[in-house]
C-alpha cells in the first residue's frame, strides 16, 4: 500500500510540470480528501483517512508523530486508539476486527465482526463485540475471549464497567424477557427480572443500583434494583402516591440517579386539552388574544413543547415518595440540571414567544429550584429580555447577561444576593460583526470557563477575555491584556468545552486567536492563576481550519485533537491554495506534517488576495479576490461578485471542487478563467438594500480599476439573504451584465407577515436579523416599500437567472414567483429554475449537476459571449 500511495503522489506532482488542466464539473468524483484524524493519548501516534483514494474507496494511514508510516490499508472503519496508546483497533472492510500493536508492529484479525465498542471494565481495556446472531463477546486487547453472552436483546455497562445489565428473550413466553445482572470481575450473574420488555436502564455512580422502565397496558413502570437484593422490584407506577391521574410516567430528558444515589430523576408528562375541543375538526379559530399563533401551537414545535408538558420529578429510593418539581408552564431551563450540581437547577416559566415584544404573554420568569425540597427561589420575574443563566460548576453561583444593563449579573446561591460583576469593564460583550444590528444585544459572545472551585469566571468581550470575581471583591483582569481590542483579534477558548473548568494545567489556558484584519489564525497561552503574567503567543499564520470564519467557534475533533495530559496536538490546517492536511505539534509552535495530499497541484488552481477599499462615504471594506493560478495581467477577465454579509474571514479557506447546491463553486469557475470577488457587506438599519448596494458598488469600483478586469463583464450572484441583496442591487443599478439570485426576497411586506414552517411569524427576523428593518410594517411602511425589489422592477436592466424551489421552508418560493411574474410582464430577460420538491438549495447529485451546468452556461453566455444555450431559448 505504501508503494501505491507514493506512486500516486509522484504521478500528480509530475503533472505539475506541464500545462495544468482546468477543473471540470466531474473533477469532484476523483478528488481525494484527508479527514478522520486521530491521536494517541501519549502523543506518539496519529492516523488519518484519505477519502476517495482510490476512487470510491478510502485509504487509512497510521504514522508516528515524527512522520514515519507504520501501517496503511483500504477501507478501514471506526479506528480508535486504546486507552494506553499501545493498540489501534478498527474494522477492516466490513466484517473483520483488526488489532494493531504499535509496539511490536504486529496485527491480529478477528473475522465476523461488524462493530465493536472499546470500554473500560474493572479498570482494564476491553473490547465488546456484537455478532449477527446477537451474541455478545468481550475480549481483551490481545483478542482473547473473556466472556460470551448469547441471544442478547439489549445490554448496558455501568459507568466504570464493573456491572453489566443484559436482556434476553424468555423462551417460556413470547411476551416476556429475562434480565440479568452480571459482575464483570467474574462474569457471573443472576436473573433479576422476568416480565415485559425493558428499556433505558440506568446505574448509580457506584454501580450498586439500577433502574429501568417496563410498560404494561396502564403505561410505563419504573423498576428498581439494588445489588444486595435478589431481584428488581416495581418502584414507581401509575397509582404511586404523588402522581396525578392525568400524568404519565416517562423517562424524560433527565432520566438518571442523583449524584448521591438517593433519588431517581424522571418525568411526568401531561397532554394539554384542546382549547377548541367543541369545534369541528375541520375548523381552526385564530384569536388576537392567543398567546401563540395557531400555526405555531398546532405545529411540530408547539405540539412537542406546548401540547405535551414534561414535568421533572424525583422518586426517593428509601421512601418511594414522588416529588413533582415543576408545574404549569414551567420547564427546566437549558440543561441546567447537571450531575455534579444536581441538588439545584434553573426553572423558566413562560407562555409566549419573546420575539413578540408587543405580546403581553411574551415574558419569562426564572427560578432556582432545590431538587430535594422542591422549593423555588425567584431569580428574575416577568422579563421581556432573553436571559441565559448558567449554574457554576461547583453550584455556588448563577451567572447571566442582563441585556437591559449590558452587563453580567451574578447571583450568590448561599446569600441570595445579586451583583453586577462586569460594570467596570469598558468593552462590549457582543459579537463584533452584529453590532450594527438594531438589536445586537441578542448576540452575546458568552462565558469562556471557570477557575477551580468557582474562584473566578472567564468572560468573553468582543475580542478579549476577562477573569472576573463572582463575589465582586477583586477587579476584573484582562487575561489577554487588551491585545484583542487593540489588534482586532478575537480570542476564544481552545481544546476544552466552553463553560468548563479551566487552568488545571498550572493555571495555563489555551486560546485560539483570529485576527479580523489580516485573517491570520493561531494560538496563545494565558495564565489565570498567577496575577498579571504575560500572555504568550504560540503561533499565528495564514491558516484556516473548520469553520473559523464564524469567528466565535471552537475547532471540532475533526480539526483539532488534544492528546491526554497535553502530550501533543493534531491539527488539520488548510490554505486557499493548499488542501487540508494534518500536522502534529507538541507545543503549537513547531509543526510536523503527518499527511501531505495535494490534489490541487495537478490543476490550474487559484490564489486568494485580501483587498481593502472604501465606499463613497469613506467607509472601509475588505473583500477576497480569487484569481486563477495561470493568471495573466495582460488579459481581460470577467468578474463574478458573490455576496452575503462578511465574506473576507474565509480568506485562507480551501474551496474544494464539488457540485454546489447554492451560488456556484468558486474553484471551478476560477480554474476556468473567471475572477471571483467576495465583498463584505455593511448593512444599514431600515435600509439593508441601500447598504448592500453601496458595499457592492464600492467593490466594483475597486476591482474595475485594474487593467485586467473587463468592466463590462461583471456578474452578481447571491443566495437567500444574498438573493435579496442581488434582487435589490439589479433593480437599482445597471452595473452588472448578468445576475443569479437564489431563494431571494423581493417583497419585504410579504416576508414580514409570513410564517416559518414551525409556525411562528417572520416579523422579528425581518426587524432584527440580517434585514435590519427595526420597525414593524405599520410603523414604517415606506422603508418596507423602498426595500422591496419587486416595486422597483421597472428599473431592472440586468438579465437574471432565478433559482428558487417550491419546497423552500426558509424563504417562500412565492417571493421569486411574484418577482418573476412582474418581470415577465415587463418583458425583462429572466429565467427561473424550480427543482420541484427541493428546499432552500438544490439537492441530489443529478439535480446539482444540472443546476451547476446551467449556471455555468448562463455566465458563459453573458460574460464570455458564448452562444445562448438552448434551454434559455426554449419557451412554451
UniProtKB/TrEMBL annotation:
One of its GO terms (molecular function) is serine-type endopeptidase activity. Residues 663-865 form the Peptidase S9 prolyl oligopeptidase catalytic domain. Pfam families: PD40, Peptidase_S9. Keywords: Hydrolase, Protease, Serine protease. InterPro entries: AB_hydrolase_fold (IPR029058), Peptidase_S9_cat (IPR001375), WD40 (IPR011659). One of its GO terms (biological process) is proteolysis. Transmembrane segments: none annotated. This is WD40-like Beta Propeller Repeat. The lineage of its organism: Bacteria, Pseudomonadati, Bacteroidota, Chitinophagia, Chitinophagales.
Amino acid at each position: 500500500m505504501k508503494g501505491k500511495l507514493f506512486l500516486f503522489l509522484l504521478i500528480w506532482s509530475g503533472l505539475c510540470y506541464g500545462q495544468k488542466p482546468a477543473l471540470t464539473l466531474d473533477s469532484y468524483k476523483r478528488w481525494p480528501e484527508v479527514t478522520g484524524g486521530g491521536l494517541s493519548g501519549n502523543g506518539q501516534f496519529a492516523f488519518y483517512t484519505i477519502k476517495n483514494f482510490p476512487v470510491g474507496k478510502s485509504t487509512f494511514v497510521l504514522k508516528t508523530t515524527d512522520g514515519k508510516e507504520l501501517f496503511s490499508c483500504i477501507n478501514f472503519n471506526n479506528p480508535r486508539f486504546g486507552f494506553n496508546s499501545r493498540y489501534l483497533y478498527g474494522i477492516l472492510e466490513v466484517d473483520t476486527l483488526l488489532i494493531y500493536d504499535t509496539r511490536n508492529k504486529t496485527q491480529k484479525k478477528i473475522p465476523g465482526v461488524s462493530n465493536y465498542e472499546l470500554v473500560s471494565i474493572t479498570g482494564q481495556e476491553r473490547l465488546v463485540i456484537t455478532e449477527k446472531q446477537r451474541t455478545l463477546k468481550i475480549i481483551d486487547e490481545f483478542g482473547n475471549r473473556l466472556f460470551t453472552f448469547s441471544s442478547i436483546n439489549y445490554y448496558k455497562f455501568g459507568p466504570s464497567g464493573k456491572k453489566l445489565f443484559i436482556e434476553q428473550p424468555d423462551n417460556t413466553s413470547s411476551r416476556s424477557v429475562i434480565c440479568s445482572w452480571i459482575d464483570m470481575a467474574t462474569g457471573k450473574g443472576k436473573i433479576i427480572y422476568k416480565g415485559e420488555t425493558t428499556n433505558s436502564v440506568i446505574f448509580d455512580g457506584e454501580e450498586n443500583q439500577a433502574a429501568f422502565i417496563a410498560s404494561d397496558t396502564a403505561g410505563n413502570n419504573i423498576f428498581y434494583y439494588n445489588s444486595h437484593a435478589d431481584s428488581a422490584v416495581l418502584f414507581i407506577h401509575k397509582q404511586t402516591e404523588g402522581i396525578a391521574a392525568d400524568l404519565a410516567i416517562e423517562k424524560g430528558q433527565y432520566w438518571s440517579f442523583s449524584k448521591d444515589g438517593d433519588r431517581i430523576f424522571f418525568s411526568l408528562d401531561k397532554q394539554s386539552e384542546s382549547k377548541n375541543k367543541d369545534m369541528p375538526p375541520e375548523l381552526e379559530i385564530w384569536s388576537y388574544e392567543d398567546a401563540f399563533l395557531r400555526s405555531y401551537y398546532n405545529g411540530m414545535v408547539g405540539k412537542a413543547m406546548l401540547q405535551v408538558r414534561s414535568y421533572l420529578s424525583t422518586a426517593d429510593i428509601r421512601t418511594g415518595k414522588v416529588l413533582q418539581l415543576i408545574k404549569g408552564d414551567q420547564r427546566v431551563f437549558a440543561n441546567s440540571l447537571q450531575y455534579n450540581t444536581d441538588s439545584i437547577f434553573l426553572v423558566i416559566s413562560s407562555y409566549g414567544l419573546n420575539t413578540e415584544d408587543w405580546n403581553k404573554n411574551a415574558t419569562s420568569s426564572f427560578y432556582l429550584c432545590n431538587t430535594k425540597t422542591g422549593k423555588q427561589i425567584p431569580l428574575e420575574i416577568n422579563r421581556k429580555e432573553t436571559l441565559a443563566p448558567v449554574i457554576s460548576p461547583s453550584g455556588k453561583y448563577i451567572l447571566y447577561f442582563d441585556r437591559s444593563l449590558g452587563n453580567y449579573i451574578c447571583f450568590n446561591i448561599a446569600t441570595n444576593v445579586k451583583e453586577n460583576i462586569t460594570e467596570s469593564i469598558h468593552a462590549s460583550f457582543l459579537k463584533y460583526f452584529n453590532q450594527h444590528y438594531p438589536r445586537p444585544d441578542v448576540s452575546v459572545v458568552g462565558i469562556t470557563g471557570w477557575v477551580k472551585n468557582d474562584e473566578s469566571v472567564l468572560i468573553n468581550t468582543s475580542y478579549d477575555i476577562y477573569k472576573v470575581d463572582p463575589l465582586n471583591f477583586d477587579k476584573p483582569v484582562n487575561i489577554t491584556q487588551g491585545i484583542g481590542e487593540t489588534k482586532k483579534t478575537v480570542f476564544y477558548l481552545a481544546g476544552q468545552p466552553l463553560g468548563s473548568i479551566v487552568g488545571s494545567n498550572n493555571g495555563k489556558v489555551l486560546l485560539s486567536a483570529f485576527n479580523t484584519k489580516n485573517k491570520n489564525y493561531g494560538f496563545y497561552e494565558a495564565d489565570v492563576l498567577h496575577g498579571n503574567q504575560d500572555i504568550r503567543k504560540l503561533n499565528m499564520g495564514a491558516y484556516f481550519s473548520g469553520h473559523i470564519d464564524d469567528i466565535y467557534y471552537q475547532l471540532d475533533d475533526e480539526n483539532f485533537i488534544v492528546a491526554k495530559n497535553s502530550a501533543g496536538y493534531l491539527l488539520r490546517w488548510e490554505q486557499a491554495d493548499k488542501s487540508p492536511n494534518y500536522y502534529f505539534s507538541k507545543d503549537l509552535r513547531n509543526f510536523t506534517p503527518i499527511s501531505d495530499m495535494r490534489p490541487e497541484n495537478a490543476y490550474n488552481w487559484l490564489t486568494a488576495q485580501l483587498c481593502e477599499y472604501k465606499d463613497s462615504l469613506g467607509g472601509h471594506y475588505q473583500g477576497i479576490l480569487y484569481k486563477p493560478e495561470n493568471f495573466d495581467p495582460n488579459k481581460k477577465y470577467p468578474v463574478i461578485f458573490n455576496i452575503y454579509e462578511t465574506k473576507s474571514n474565509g480568506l485562507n479557506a480551501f474551496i474544494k471542487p464539488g457540485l454546489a447546491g447554492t451560488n456556484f463553486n468558486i474553484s471551478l469557475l476560477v480554474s476556468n478563467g473567471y475572477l471571483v470577488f467576495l465583498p463584505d457587506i455593511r448593512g444599514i438599519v431600515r435600509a439593508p438594500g441601500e447598504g448592500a448596494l453601496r458595499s457592492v458598488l464600492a467593490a466594483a469600483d475597486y476591482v474595475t480599476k485594474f487593467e485586467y478586469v473587463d468592466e463590462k463583464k461583471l456578474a452578481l450572484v447571491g443566495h437567500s439573504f444574498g438573493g435579496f441583496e442581488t434582487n435589490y442591487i439589479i433593480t437599482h443599478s445597471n452595473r452588472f451584465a448578468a445576475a443569479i439570485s437564489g431563494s431571494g426576497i423581493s417583497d419585504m411586506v410579504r416576508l414580514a407577515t409570513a410564517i416559518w414552517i414551525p409556525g411562528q411569524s417572520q416579523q422579528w427576523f425581518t426587524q432584527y436579523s440580517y434585514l435590519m428593518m427595526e420597525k414593524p410594517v405599520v410603523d414604517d411602511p415606506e422603508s418596507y416599500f423602498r426595500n422591496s425589489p419587486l416595486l422597483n422592477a421597472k428599473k431592472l436592466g440586468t438579465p437574471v437567472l432565478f433559482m428558487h424551489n417550491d419546497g423552500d421552508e426558509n424563504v417562500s418560493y412565492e417571493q421569486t414567483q411574484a418577482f418573476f411574474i412582474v418581470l415577465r410582464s415587463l418583458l425583462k430577460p429572466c429565467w427561473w429554475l424550480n427543482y420541484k420538491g427541493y428546499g432552500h438549495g438544490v439537492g441530489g447529485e443529478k439535480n446539482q449537476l444540472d443546476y451547476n451546468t446551467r449556471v455555468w452556461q448562463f455566465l458563459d453566455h453573458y460574460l464570455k459571449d458564448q452562444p445562448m444555450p438552448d434551454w434559455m431559448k426554449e419557451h412554451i
